[in-house]
Amino acid sequence: MKTWDPYITVRAVRPVVAALEALGHDVQAILAENPIFRSVIKDPEGRIPHGAMMLLWDRARAVTGDNHLGIHLAEAAPIRSFEVHAYALLSSPTLREAYQRACRYQRLIHEVTDLTMEEDKHEGVLRHALPGGRVVPRHPAEFLATLWIRFGRLVTGNDWAPSLMCFAHNAPEDTTEHSRVFRAPVRFLSGRTAMHIPTEILNAQNPRSDVGLVGVLDHYAEELLKQIPCQITLSDRVRVRLLEELRGGSPTSQVIARALRMSVRTLDRGLQREGTGFREVLNQLRREQAATLLANPRVSIAEVGFLLGFAELSSFYRAFKKWTGKTPADLRAEALSGTKSAPQRDL
Q: Domain check: are 78 and 21 in the same one?
């Protein structure tokens, strides 16, 4: 597996900082212990390590004391704090085209992020994941999902609701804000950040669409994209799909290949070129997810096994012992006691 050390552009940082200012929070205090400085934010080509952005979120949560920070910042961010990709989205003729542009231009925000939208005859599903199929922590994930909703409603000019929202994190104690903003069922601990949108909503026309303007914006955005190499690997895409397919079952390469619209042979060859294989990717993902889930006392060991695709708890225990030399109960005890070998969450 390749080293995961991505960067986020200032286009992702500016709306967060602008929203903090709009809500009257002490931005200087939030940035004081963070390597993100105003000089970098003002640089149109500025790039910030992903880890630094996660530290910004942690610091902002601590300073503001807002337990629904991601939702509130997404609602408060001034439209002017977004750049060309957002204006192209808002000028799109339909909601479908708006979300397709969001997917196309996502690399202008995060150089190795994965934002996709797939459709069947009933709905479209907008999905987001970090490299290696890693999911976004709670507050930035809720920030992103709220932006999907906010911009989507601006495009259509009406107050529509998705059919389902999915998050990878635990449900917070209070989900009142989720109900207010999304007005849809919200599934937590789903292994993904995703929004399900009925087809009739995706067909909605944008009453303020400007075809001439969107053409100009597309040209500018495409020129910017040419300067950013695509670094999403096939292994990353496989991990994203595996996270969605694991629940209570062991996904096969046939299932994943079909989801990626390729043959099993093409899938195997692509993974071989990256120095890995389907089984290796699956086991690596299970090991990482097991460490993260076992560090969470709100998820039972039996639930961990189910979420990792083991039909029987005994099978999970055997596999985990083979991976780590320890039992799941041993690792959980270490994690909860804060010992050195306790698993750490991915940022």
A: yes
